[in-house]
Design brief:
The protein has 196 residues and is mostly helical. The protein is built from 6 helices and 4 strands; from the N terminus they run ββαββααααα.
Length: 196
């Protein structure tokens, strides 16, 4: 949910990797209306919210192989730099924009904006985030495959929920606190298996 000057952007998402041919595709409009109703029940939205036409679109959740070409650097959604697990992209858009700006300044100072001069951006991005994105992309392929079990296990751990809820609104969000979250989640999964 993103508050704007005179309206709210409220979104729901469906991950393509969660929709298998054997599964019936979900009706996003129905899910969206259910989400709005839940927000109203929780008193997070006014009950008399005016209804306007809904809009939607697709965005990539898989990093492009190349983020640079001659005179081009792809940042944020344009480069597929969206968290494959959560669809969150603001943090990555800001980080990639900052890296691209730094690279552009250097390239302009050197009067060279060919792909060779801009490759520093790609290297820096890969160094900082590519490993995490690869891991999250592999994990995201598990959507639709017993994901309810993962959510159920995570929901039983109040401390894990607290860590996640603290991390989300902070600059850097989940990315910043992943090494507090992942070990705790893996521990919960292992503990759950032992107790079964």
């Amino acid at each position: 949910m993103f508050p704007k000057k005179e309206h709210l952007n409220i979104g729901v998402v469906e991950f393509r990797q969660a929709v298998k041919p054997s599964n019936e595709k979900k009706n996003l409009q129905t899910n969206f209306m259910y989400y709005l109703q839940t927000l109203k029940q929780q008193k997070l939205l006014p009950t008399r919210l005016p209804k306007i036409a809904t809009q939607g679109g697709a965005f990539p959740t898989c990093q492009m192989k190349r983020l640079t070409a001659d005179r081009i650097m792809l940042c944020g959604d344009a480069g597929g730099l969206t968290n494959p697990m959560a669809g969150e992209g603001i943090f990555y858009a800001m980080c990639s924009g900052e890296m691209a700006a730094y690279t552009a300044i250097k390239a302009l100072e050197n009067q060279s904006t060919d792909k060779q001069s801009l490759r520093h951006y790609q290297r820096r991005w890969n160094q900082e985030f590519h490993g995490d994105f690869s891991m999250m992309h592999r994990l995201s392929k598990r959507w639709g495959r017993n994901i309810d079990h993962f959510i159920e296990v995570a929901c039983k751990d109040k401390k894990l929920i607290d860590v996640i809820c603290e991390a989300i609104p902070k600059p850097g969000g989940i990315q910043q606190d992943k090494w507090r979250i992942l070990p705790r989640f893996v521990f919960d999964l292992c503990k759950n298996r032992i107790l079964q």
